Amino acid sequence: MAFAGFPVAALDFYDDLELDNTRSFWSAHKHVYDEAVRGPMVALTDALADEFGPAKVFRPYRDVRFSKDKTPYKDHQGAFVAAGPATGWYVEVGAPGVRVGAGFYHAEADRLAAFRAAVAHDLTGPELERILRGLERRGWTRGGEQLKTSPRGWPADHPRIELLRHKSLAMSRSYGFDEIVHKPELLDEVRRDWRAARPLVEWVVRVTG
Question: What is the pTM of this model?
Fold first, then answer.
């Protein structure tokens, strides 16, 4: 199936799911999820696979085993293309619209140590800052889990202490409700944005091995 955009029904589906996140609602509207959400997401990521690689389209069910929130379904549909461990590109559709992301969402102790060493380095640290500034100029927003204080072993007055505090680092850009999310041209927009984020993804893969 060629990608034709996410229909309005996809956003409406998640609007309704926020009000009635129950198995009975899901059963009655699963055809909408399949046709308006999952189908277009698979078509979008399939169209990008030649350049970026195959995507994992996430399951719609929440893991509620250790959560106080027992609502059974996620309030969005995401897909992830891995370039390295927990590192790569992301796209999501939900009630707020469509957004893309790139970076790493988790790092084991050795990879996190390698990331921080590269941030502190006089060559790779400024390189990362330039990459992030370039994305921010294009409308991307920086996110990721951060420590509230300086990581152990690093001085609080380090010139890149804000980056050193990151335990994960992701940049994201939202298209919101823009008309483009309902059109085939969204494919080109996501491709352009993922290409723009490639230096970040490659930087993380390179410095963390």
Answer: 0.95
Ramachandran angles phi, psi of 101, nearest 5°: -155, 165
Residue pLDDT, tens place only, 58-89: 999 998 888 888 899 999 999 999 999 999 99
Taking only the tens place, the pLDDT of each residue in 116-164 is 999 999 999 999 999 999 999 999 999 999 999 999 999 999 999 999 9
- Is 94 strand, coil or helix? strand
Burial of residue 133, with CB atoms counted within 10 A of its CB: 0-12 exposed, 13-18 middle, 19 or more buried: exposed
Running DSSP on this structure, what letter comes out for residue 134?
H
User: Which ranges of the chain would DSSP assign to H, the alpha helix?
Assistant: 8-19, 23-32, 39-52, 109-120, 124-137, 161-164, 186-208
**1 contacts: CB under 8 Å, gap ≥ 6:** 39, 42, 43
What's the sign of the alpha-carbon dihedral 54, 55, 59, 62? positive
Q: What is the domain class of 8-208 according to CATH?
A: alpha beta
